[in-house]
Amino acid sequence: MIDQYQVSIDPRSGIESDPNRPDDEQYIVRLIGKVIHVSLETLKIVKSLPDDFGVAGEKSEKDHELKTWRQNQRLPTSDSAREQRERLRKQVESLIS
Fold this sequence. Notes:
3 helices, 97 residues
């Protein structure tokens, strides 16, 4: 994060980017403090979750919705799309063989 908050000059345009705030010199210090605070609170929340939360292989409702949506997508049926799929299928087969 600190790397992003450095004065830099774009090599092509020569424009200087200065994230420092002359009106608020403690901005970066407070920002780092906030990031650390959020990280620590996140750790507390994660540690408070039940042991079986997010068991491997468990699928969420969103995962199911995404899978269903993907299955319902229609492939293009034009002749050129069919030809392209056939070419790709042959290329894959030749790589496998």
